[in-house]
Write a structure and sequence with these properties.
217 residues; mainly alpha; 2 domains; two-stranded antiparallel sheet; 8 helices
């Protein structure tokens, strides 16, 4: 569970991905609509209690969208927090006549999810470049033509890896995490992390070796 702290000091608990209790209950649709409109109005006014209730009511929805798209609980938590903080800061941009508050929140969430995917792609590129440099073993500021080829090949092969292996390499290269730390971050057994990392690196090395012209590798 992660705490969400708003700019005005409101704290709410981040909903679990499934089975979490929240404020949506089966009942009279008219009553539910009135309650949603009341919460939205308080939220736009900057009422802290309304912010907390909005978060508890629709936090699980935003989290679930992020978790399904990203496949990573920690990233989903970050996206959920970014979504609600962005909504709070931009609350005066919400207008009820354009649609209900949950739809507006989902729109923000989708943009934050897209940003998370873009950041993940950048990490993949950086990890590939780092792996290529490590594999070349050649210091110096001037990049050799074959080093550029290595980087292209590594990037392509990194994208072909299974998501779990790609994620582990990104954590190792970009976040500079040890195998133990990666196991703690992902929840995978330590032996599984080591196995995935070893197979992924061997696959990339083979790809680079096979892709280099004769006399370059």
């Amino acid at each position: 569970m992660t705490a969400l702290l708003s700019p005005v000091g409101t704290v709410a608990a981040l909903p679990a991905p499934a089975g979490n209790r929240h404020e949506d209950r089966a009942g009279n649709p008219s009553d539910d609509r009135v309650e949603s409109e009341r919460l939205a109005a308080g939220f736009v006014r900057g009422d802290e209690d309304s912010f907390a209730l909005v978060y508890r009511r629709w936090g699980a929805l935003v989290y679930s969208l992020a978790a399904r798209s990203l496949g990573d609980a920690r990233e989903a938590e970050d996206v959920a927090q970014q979504t609600f903080l962005a909504a709070w800061r931009g609350r005066h941009g919400y207008h009820a006549v354009r649609g209900p508050l949950p739809g507006w929140l989902v729109g923000i969430a989708r943009r934050k999810i897209a940003d998370a995917h873009a950041a993940r792609s950048r990490r993949t590129e950086l990890a590939a470049a780092h792996a290529a440099r490590e594999g070349s073993g050649a210091p110096g500021t001037a990049e050799r033509p074959e080093a550029a080829l290595d980087r292209v090949l590594v990037t392509q092969e990194l994208r072909k890896l299974p998501p779990v292996q790609r994620h582990i390499l990104c954590l190792a290269f970009f976040d500079d995490l040890t195998h133990v730390q990666i196991a703690e971050r992902t929840g995978l057994p330590l032996g599984t992390v080591k196995s995935h990392a070893r197979r992924a690196i061997l696959r990339i090395r083979r790809s680079v070796a096979e892709g280099c012209p004769d006399g370059v590798a």
